Amino acid sequence: MSYTNVEKYDEMPQFIASAVGLRQSTRQIPQSMGVQDGVKLIVKAGTMFPANDATAVGVIFGPVDVTYGDHAGSVVIGGHLYGNRLPVVPAAAAKTTLQANGLYFEDAVGMVR
User: Fold this and answer.
1) Which of 3, 11, 66, 68 could lock onto 31 through a cystine, CB 3.0 to 4.6 A?
2) Coil, strand, or helix at residue 100?
3) Arithmetic mean of pLDDT, 20-36
């Protein structure tokens, strides 16, 4: 007898391509970046920080609760990420800026069994 468990995700669960060379920095995440999630304002993991344009300095590592105001959060500033697993695909200007600072994007391939 076998059992099958199916989990459904809104987006792919892991966007870190490699832990080797991964650099993170603590930044103040503004409440204005939050998206309503039930009764809370949450900034999703994988969100470009501070914006998805040439001003980008990194990608938010984990979800940040900004319901009650700005909050400290971890931002990936160097390493390799799966760009196609982020909640929003990085803009060309953001990719250029981040790659110049050591943060690279790769495309994840699907798992085949």
Assistant:
1) 66
2) helix
3) 97
